[in-house]
């Protein structure tokens, strides 16, 4: 059972995690709930199972948890999410999508959608959350960027551009909030073992005629020197660190959880 020290007691804090009904976002929500935070999870759907997921988090961890539907490609939805939550002490901007194509063939609608969801949504939620954080004299803004916020890969122009821009936004917000009890940082994961990534493994095994361990190590994690996936719990634990008193003077920076990817 996970122990919670006084430094990890987030009771009385409300955490909003965008794009959090699965994968990294859900892992972050679980870790924040374990530490006692009131948790607001989010995606663009509004299904019974989304609300059931929030109810399960609440029951598992003895906290209040809610699901609020909001389309992160729409500015008004991003800002409304913060308002509907009724408060925001911890903001985790996690929502993101990907599309792969050469620059000259990259669909314009996909470019616009990726920039809106990966980058502009963070701008809108931060802008909406900051007044409340300033009024309380405390806040934590954590942007889930990517190893691709610090380096690049071919055929991912929109994703790489958006994640680099998120890192720049993070630094700017940190400077604007310095000395106000608010910090803003970016976490830059490499490959994380999420349900979406897990679902890709059988196809990769067939394409490369390799067993599971070999295709993970030699194909999927080729650029990740540890040859191991990061876990959603590890990303959530990094978020917890940034919410703790140990990180009061950590702001405007990136923390890589990428198995050495960006050290190459």
Brief rundown of the structure:
With 264 residues, the protein is of the alpha/beta class. It has 8 helices and 7 strands. The protein has a 7-stranded parallel beta sheet, with helices on both faces.
Descriptors for this entry?
Rossmann fold, alpha/beta, 264 residues, disordered N terminus
Intertermini distance = 36 Å
CATH topology (level 3) name of the largest domain: Rossmann fold
Question: What's the main sheet like?
Answer: 7 strands, parallel
Structural class label: alpha/beta
Q: What's the Cα radius of gyration?
A: 18 Å
Q: In one word, what is the shape? A: globular
Mean pLDDT: 96
Widest beta sheet: strand line-up: 3-2-1-4-5-6-7
**What fraction, in percent, of the residue positions are helical?**
40-55%
Structural notes for this entry:
With 264 residues, this protein is of the alpha/beta class. It has 2 domains: 11-192 and 230-259, 3-Layer(aba) Sandwich (Rossmann fold), CATH 3.40.50; 193-229. 46% of the residues lie in helices and 14% in strands. The chain has helices at residues 23-34, 48-61, 75-85, 108-136, 157-177, 195-208, 212-220, 232-243; strands at 14-17, 38-43, 65-69, 90-93, 139-144, 182-189, 254-257. Helix 1 crosses helix 8 and helix 4 (108-136) runs parallel beside helix 5 (157-177). It is globular and about 55 Å long. The model is unreliable at 1-6 (pLDDT under 50).
């Amino acid at each position: 059972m996970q122990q919670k020290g006084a430094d990890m007691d987030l009771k009385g804090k409300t955490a909003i995690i965008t794009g959090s009904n699965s994968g990294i976002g859900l892992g972050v929500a679980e870790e924040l709930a374990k530490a006692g935070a009131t948790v607001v999870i989010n995606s663009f759907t509004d299904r019974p199972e989304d609300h059931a997921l929030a109810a399960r988090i609440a029951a598992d961890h003895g906290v209040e948890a809610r699901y609020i539907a909001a389309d992160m490609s729409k500015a008004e939805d991003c800002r409304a999410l913060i308002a509907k939550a009724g408060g925001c002490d911890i903001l985790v901007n996690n929502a993101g999508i990907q599309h792969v194509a050469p620059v000259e063939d990259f669909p314009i609608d996909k470019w616009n959608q990726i920039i809106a969801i990966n980058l502009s949504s963070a701008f809108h939620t931060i802008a909406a959350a900051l007044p409340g954080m300033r009024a309380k004299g405390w806040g934590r803004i954590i942007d889930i960027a990517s190893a691709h916020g610090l380096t690049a890969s071919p055929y991912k122009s929109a994703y790489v551009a958006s994640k680099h821009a998120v890192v720049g936004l993070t630094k700017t917000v940190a400077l604007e909030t310095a000395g106000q009890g608010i910090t803003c940082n970016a976490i830059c994961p490499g490959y994380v073992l999420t349900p979406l990534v897990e679902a890709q493994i059988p196809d990769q095994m067939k394409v490369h005629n390799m067993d599971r361990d070999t295709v993970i190590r030699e194909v999927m994690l080729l650029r990740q020197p540890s040859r191991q996936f990061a876990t959603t719990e590890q990303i959530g634990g990094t978020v917890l660190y940034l919410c703790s008193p140990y990180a009061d003077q950590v702001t405007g920076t990136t923390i890589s959880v990428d198995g050495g990817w960006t050290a190459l």
